[in-house]
Specification:
Blueprint lengths: L1 E10 L3 H14 L3 E7 L6 E11 L10 E6 L3 H6 L3 E10 L9 E3 L1 H7 L7 H13 L4 H10 L5 H17 L19 E2 L1 H11 L4 E4 L6 H9 L1 H4 L2 E4 L3 H13 L4 E5 L1 H5 L2 H10 L4 E6 L16 H6 L8 E3 L4 H18 L3 E6 H5 L1 E3 L61 H12 L1 H7 L5 E3 L6 E6 L3 H13 L4 E6 L1 E3 L3 H8 L9 E6 L5 H8 L7 E4 L8 H9 L2
Parallel strand pairs: 1-4, 4-5, 5-6, 8-9, 8-10, 10-11, 11-13, 12-13, 16-17, 16-19, 19-20
Antiparallel strand pairs: 1-3, 2-3, 2-14, 7-14, 12-18, 15-17
Length: 562
């Protein structure tokens, strides 16, 4: 059983609400769900769609073809009707006879007739979709009660009535998909936004700042919602320059802090990143990527800011870069980013993207217990305390102002006690100290995760959100007899070249005949990075940069014909 439902309409018409209702209903029936969104950068109008792929086995990717299209406006047909599977069903919100290949069902009119409002047409549409699938309404009605609990019993009743009316609109025997397996339990669903929020909150982040910028804004909103529960202050700064400098101030005072932004906002933060490096502050920045340059495609997805994060900031200094591939990884890497930044007193970046931030999929229940990270702050600093004492690891004992120690910091080059200096020998000594941290960061680097046999003929290297589509591509190729494997990187820097080489070819006698690097950018940034450090030799890039995410079928097709 594998069905893809596509809800399409203009912004403000309830596309997302309808999608969320079906996600909740299908997950509540115990089905695996993989839901993605495609939306334009406008408050009203345009054409948006919400895909819900459901199956009785784990899902890792979206599908291009839809089995059921629910069109809330006629304009959706021209764009999306060509992307229907054989035998697919198209439902159109219309009181008139539908176009060729469509079934007209008056969602909006029906909502009003049963006592609801125009905005409740989404509940009518969701009820009709469940009827077409041949599924009972119990799961949908239950989810409606949960979804609108805060709005009161009257709103719940009207929405349930609309869903029931929607199911009755489709009177003929519906095409049916296989029923869920008996005894299925509800499946917990999450996305990277929710996971990063919870990971940071449970790690003890106390100050969060940023200037709203899609798709990073959800993290600011999510942490603000948890402010009372976890004791978090969220500040919407006047601009990105202020945001990064606020975070530097917070971390200087010993407060775990997080900055959330996207590529265009991060561009304004680079001077602050260098400041954090010189002051040796545990600055953590989430960069939720989207296509550029400039404003680019602000609501689409990309993996194009890797080299930007790696080289951002003037001067030379160590940093760590993580990139989750699933919501569960996003939860753990949000915690790890904060832990790493505080342990090594260096900037750390968490790279995500619109695809991963917005998708909804099966995710193990995430622990919401507060488990603060170790800030590595001296409880009892000595009288002769030196904030920038030279150590073998490059990490100096850290005290915070207001305690027993006199903490001096300066954005200019400084001596070990923090005072400004132009002593060139001191400059070399302190710069070597800062750069020494990279050894520790590299020693703790997360290894890539392999999926598939060690003797695979074709190896797919990927990072970040390409995890799921690449994993599905490996399975699709394997079903055809092509032995393939995937190597997924959730840490992008620092990298241990020797460890990467071993991961690429665990058995040198059976090394992959061909290596592909799958990336959502136009220049093969990660492949270039791997070649630069000598971790891989010949490697073919499979790139996508139209603003849409990869699908497993698409990757398999491109590998298959190469």
């Amino acid at each position: 059983m594998d069905v893809n439902i596509r809800i399409a309409g203009e912004a403000g018409q309830g596309v997302q609400t309808t999608g969320n209702l079906l996600v909740g209903a299908l997950a509540g029936m115990g089905l695996s769900v993989f839901a993605t969104q495609s939306y334009l950068s406008r408050v009203r109008g345009g054409l948006n769609w919400f895909d819900i792929r459901a199956a009785d086995a784990p899902l890792f990717s979206a599908r291009d073809e839809a089995d059921l299209l629910v069109a809330l406006l006629p304009e959706a047909l021209a764009t999306l009707q060509p992307h229907m599977s054989d035998g697919g069903v198209v439902l159109l919100d219309s009181e008139e006879a539908g176009a060729t290949g469509c079934i007209s069902l008056a969602f909006t009119k029906t909502a009003k007739e049963v006592g609801g409002s125009e905005v409740m047409a989404n509940a009518v549409a969701a009820g009709a979709a469940m009827r077409v699938l041949g599924y009972p309404l119990d799961g949908l009605l239950g989810f409606l009660s949960q979804e609108f609990k805060k709005k009161g019993e009257e709103v719940i009743t009207k929405n349930r009535r609309c869903a029931e009316a929607g199911a009755k609109l489709f009177a003929s025997d519906p095409p049916r998909v296989p029923a869920p397996k008996p005894g299925n339990k509800p499946v917990p669903i999450s996305n990277a936004t929710q996971a990063i929020v919870l990971g940071a909150a449970t790690a003890g982040v106390k100050f969060v700042c940023g200037y709203p910028m899609t798709p990073g804004t959800g993290v600011l909103q999510g942490l603000a919602a948890l402010g009372d529960e976890f004791g978090i202050v969220v500040e919407q700064a006047e601009d990105e320059i202020a945001a990064v400098n606020m975070a530097c101030g917070a971390t200087y005072a010993g407060v775990p802090a997080l900055v959330a932004t996207s590529g265009g906002g991060f561009a304004l933060m680079t001077e602050g990143v260098s400041l954090a490096a010189m002051l040796e502050l545990p600055l953590v920045i989430l960069i939720a990527q989207r296509p550029g340059p400039a404003t680019g495609l602000p609501t689409r997805t990309a993996q194009q800011d890797l080299l930007f994060a790696l080289h951002a900031g003037h001067g030379e200094f160590p940093r760590a870069i993580y990139a989750p591939g699933t919501p569960e990884q996003a939860y753990h890497l949000a915690r790890r980013a904060l832990e790493t930044a505080h342990k090594h007193q260096s900037p750390v970046f968490l790279l995500s993207d619109q695809f991963l931030m917005d998708l909804q999929t099966d995710t193990p229940t995430l622990d919401r217990t507060l488990r603060p990270i170790d800030r590595h702050i001296l409880a009892d600093p000595p009288e002769d305390y030196l904030r920038y004492a030279v150590t073998e690891s490059g990490v100096s004992p850290r005290a915070i102002p207001g305690g027993k120690a006199f903490v001096i910091v300066d954005s200019d080059e400084h001596t070990e006690d923090g005072h400004i200096t132009e002593d060139l020998e001191a400059r070399v000594r302190l710069q070597d100290k800062r750069l020494a941290k990279e050894r520790g960061l590299r020693a703790e680097a997360l290894p890539p995760e392999r999926y598939g046999p060690e003797d695979a003929e074709r190896l797919l290297i990927c990072w970040g959100s390409s995890y799921g589509p690449c994993r599905e591509a490996v399975d699709l190729l394997g079903a055809e007899g092509t032995i393939a494997a995937m190597l997924h990187f959730r840490q992008l820097w620092p990298l241990d070249a020797a460890a990467v080489k071993k991961a690429v070819a665990p058995d040198k006698k059976r090394a992959p005949k061909k290596i592909f690097c799958i990336e959502g950018n136009a220049t093969g940034q990660f492949a270039s990075l791997l070649r630069t450090i000598g971790a891989v030799g010949e490697c073919e890039s499979v790139l996508k940069y139209d603003g849409l995410p990869f699908t497993g079928a698409e990757i398999a097709e491109r590998i298959r014909h190469d």
